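Anyone else keep sequences and structure tokens together like this?

Example one:
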Amino acid sequence: MSVALRGALVGAALALLTAAGCGDGERVDGAPVDPGGEPGGGTLVYALAARPDELDPLLATTRPDQILTRQVHEPLVESLSGPFGDVRGVRGLARSWRPSGDRQIWGFELRPRVRFQDGTPFNSTAVLANVQRWRTLQAGRELLPELVAADAPRPDLVRFILSRPVPDLPRRLATPRLGIVSPAALRPRSGRGAELARTDRSGTGPFEVRERERERVVIARNVAWWGTRADLGPALDQVEFQVVPTDPERLAALRRGTTQVADALPPAAVGEIRGDPLLTFVGGGGEDVVGLERSVRGIDSASAIESLSGVWLTMVGVE
């Protein structure tokens, strides 16, 4: 890629999604999404060190798995900001939450008019199926050992009932591994001991898996994503994940401009990155760093990378 073309890349955002505390959240209901609206802005190429094999968020334990599945499956708790320098904090599938006085019961008010990519409504029934799955599978019990039951006093409210006080439950529910999946994709649909039988279109997220090959996965924007009507994007048409297994190969691809983000580079790569005026880096968790073109926006802190929680929001385009 030429220097001129690399400079024309506007950028892509990986917005840090964190629990925003308890209490009343803002409301972004708006009109239904118009699938014929303004398109996204091109493709971002992201080099991964290993192949992402697991699209079931609950079973996604590796870094590549979580980076991929997080773009498809949203956790109940998140805080999003829009593209182009938007600094708003917009809550996600749960638009507010409040604990009981002893913090053993937490109520989560759900965002209305949200659907999974397969058309299934997102509501309290869907959340209860996911909770039942978490409670009856070992992977879920390890993440939420205090969760003993849940109920739904009304279609837009779910209550989590705990065996002891858990002051940080919203933060725990923000993990990519507790991404909400469509009950229609579960076998059985009740969620009890269920496997995710179909990963295609099983999330509510801003991207859906379009192509999946051994060394390459392409995700494309979900034109019906609820966040679009709140001006949250996504403003990328696609993200192409490429498996580039060795550190020198990922660094070389970044320097050539054939990838815009190179994940899990060793600290030794920092010297070479600093020597290229078109490149920069951020901490990537542990001793690793993430190399990226300076034109890429949003992947700008170690905490954003370490959380593995985000949606690609800011436009990529060629002038």
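And example two:
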Amino acid sequence: MTVVNLRTAALDEEPDAPAGRRCRRSDVGVAHGATLTGLEVWDLPPGEAGEPYHYELEREVWLVVVAGAPTVRTPAGERRLRAGDVECFPVGPAGAHELRNDTDEAVRLALASNRSGAAHATVQPGSDKLHVSDGGRRRIVRASPELDFWDGEA
């Protein structure tokens, strides 16, 4: 069994992310053969954000702030978190979230979730997009054809 350190794990660039969404991440759960639970580690450089505001259709997501002070946007509004904070984003619209780094310091996050199967679906309410991923490529199921994953957010 391999051990991963959340503070030092090597992460990969998001190759197709536009400016403002350039985070580094690694799905350490998949890398370790996990099939029921997912664990991703993300780095958000200053001024960058993760995925657009969205919610999961079948996954509950837990956030652990490993380092830094990210801003989290939820249906209740925005607030700053700090290292050591833990938050749960439930399934459905009540769990909508976006994570940003509005500081001059690096932010590192760990995101754990249940894995309900090979496909994964999220909704981006700001653009009325439904995304389905088969574990690799994202595919927009419902939205204007000229929008991609990153475009059209409110």
